[in-house]
Amino acid sequence: MDMERVLKGTPWTFNNHLLLLHKLQVTKDPLIVPLICTPFWVQIHDIPAGYFSERLAIQLGNFIGTHMEYDGSNLGKEN
């Protein structure tokens, strides 16, 4: 039960480094498990009013990795 909570609660960090976890099957070779990426939310602050758009969010997401999803629900708010 604890293992499932940890695996579903990603992303995790240790010492400010991203920690990737994978439930290894008994027959799997651990040397071929592709621990190369994981999705996580990024929040950008101090973008001038009027400049933030879905297009900019996609460009920023693709700059740091691969953009997957955009949530503009807080646009125009003080947050």
TrEMBL record:
Protein name listed in UniProt: DUF4283 domain-containing protein
Highest taxon above the source species: Eukaryota
